[in-house]
Amino acid sequence: VADLPSFACTPANAPIEAAICADPELAAYDRAMALAYPRMKPALRATQKAWLAERDRCSSVPKVKVCIRRAYTRRLLMEGGVFGTSQKPERATVPTYLRSKDDGPGGLALLDVGGGKYVYHLWSTYFSYAYSEDHPQEISGDLFGVITMRDGVGHDAAANICAVTIKPNGNAWVVSADSDCLGLNNNPRGTYVPRRT
Fold first, then answer.
1. pLDDT tens-digit series, residues 5-29
2. Nearest to 120 by CA among 80, 151, 100, 149
3. What share of the chain is helix, strand, coil (3-state, %, to 5)?
4. pTM here?
């Protein structure tokens, strides 16, 4: 179950569905979409069939997996989606955690998709901006991906963009990442506590 999408995987699957069934990361995105769909605003839900047709056109491109990942990322991060957007991540409606202001603005939105996997949206900005009147809330970098929990530590499933790990600490999450993970001088390291709404 951990690596399956929201639909049944059978020999009769269409090519795009077969590609999703064969890839644990894409399957996690599909489960996230299935969980996100009921939370979307009605106007956005009404465009789901058009989005599925767009996603299915990935079967005609050379890099099918990249295309499918991009389709899910755009959909889950679009205005009105459940992860907020790259420009307005604070609009996430899934569980969201904020980094200490002393470390600079930052946040982590997590959706548990089962099987020890989370789809995540991580964002932060330069440390210096935490003390700048000109950029108090400016987001200068973000990542969207799949975290797999192993032995109490979550690792980015792709790990080819940036090595990100998360670890639970009570009701908070501790994030570790490569230096310059979200751009020059922009590391999302820190402790993220539940956002109060």
1. 999 999 999 999 999 999 999 999 9
2. 149
3. 30, 25, 40
4. 0.87
